[in-house]
Specification:
By secondary structure, this protein is an all-alpha fold. The protein has helices spanning about 5-30, 35-55, 65-95, 100-130, 145-180, 185-205, 205-225, 235-245, 245-255, 260-300. The relative contact order is 0.14. InterPro entries: GCR1-cAMP_receptor (IPR022343), GPCR_2-like_7TM (IPR017981), GPCR_GCR1_put (IPR022340).
């Protein structure tokens, strides 16, 4: 999804995002014991991140069929990812601030998931209908109408605003809960509530990761619209191509590598795998030795 100087950063960012998303998905599937409601949301987000990263790895000449695939692919995923991140922020808000029951939250997230897919497909259709065939060397393969671009920018910024608002509300509630925990006399109860608070705090990191990885792209989008004749900033193009598809790797660190229980399970699995391979390598020489010794004994008899 890049041209010229953006190609290498896009490949690096796309590869990192692809790797991180795959790790999250594999861990979720391989270890049923660590699954919970929040990890289910992360699993769905990792699917969107995976597809977005693949979109950044798709590249071809401007008049090539890959460019058309890239445009459609990108228009869907560039809407679905912020939409689902906003959904996670809203659901986290319902759980932390409003203390909504799991059944109600699950029902809400299903409808929001449907909304995410629906609005992404609508944006994709609009993108295809109103895109013009003129080609330019830029982030997207095809030049778009200014009004259409502004509408898509507004959707993008709307989701970023929603994510930021829910993050601030959740953070305020967590801070209040932490102050209340510190007043508890029982150490066991204090540790239990602190662990729960740690999980909630980790969930609030998802919107922050998305906002941080979207800063270069947001600045570039605003600059392209309000200053269409301004010269391109090389560093902004590179940062956009590098960070936008790499949300998967940041989420992977937060929810896999920095979580002690998950990290321990992965290490244990790797040790078991190594032991099995070592045992197999020892079995073959033992079998051969047993075979030749039996043959030798037979000859002596």
């Amino acid at each position: 999804m890049a041209h010229g100087r953006e190609v290498l950063p896009a490949i690096i960012g796309g590869t990192l995002g692809l790797f991180g998303s795959l790790v999250i998905m594999i861990v979720h599937i391989a270890y049923p014991s660590i699954r919970n409601f929040f990890r289910k949301l992360i699993f769905i987000l990792s699917i969107y991140d995976l597809l977005l990263s693949i979109g950044f790895l798709i590249n071809g000449p401007s008049n090539h069929i890959l460019c058309r695939i890239q445009t459609v692919w990108g228009s869907v995923l560039m809407t679905a990812t912020p939409s689902w991140t906003a959904t996670i922020s809203f659901i986290t808000y319902l759980k932390i601030v409003k203390s909504v029951s799991d059944s109600k939250v699950d029902y809400i997230q299903r409808w929001l998931h449907f909304f995410t897919i629906f609005i992404s497909l609508v944006i994709c259709i609009i993108w295809i209908i109103f895109s013009r065939p003129e080609v330019k060397e830029a982030y997207w393969c095809f030049e778009k109408e200014a009004n259409l671009l502004f509408g898509i920018y507004c959707i993008w910024w709307f989701f970023l605003l929603v994510i930021l608002i829910f993050y601030i509300l959740c953070l305020i509630k967590i801070r209040q809960a932490y102050k209340a925990i510190m007043k508890i006399a029982s150490q066991m109860e204090k540790l239990r509530k602190k662990e729960k608070l740690k999980i909630q705090l980790r969930m609030t990191l998802i919107p922050i990761v998305y906002i941080l990885t979207s800063i270069p792209s947001s600045i570039k989008r605003a600059r392209d619209y309000f200053q269409p004749n301004a010269s391109d900033l090389k560093i902004l193009d590179v940062l956009q191509a590098l960070f936008l598809p790499s949300q998967g790797i940041f989420d992977c660190f937060i929810f896999v590598f920095f979580v002690r229980i998950v990290r321990k399970k992965i290490i244990d699995s790797l040790f078991k795998c190594c032991r099995k391979n070592q045992d197999r390598s020892l079995v073959i020489p033992l079998v051969r030795e047993s075979y030749f010794s039996d043959e030798f004994d037979t000859e002596n008899d």
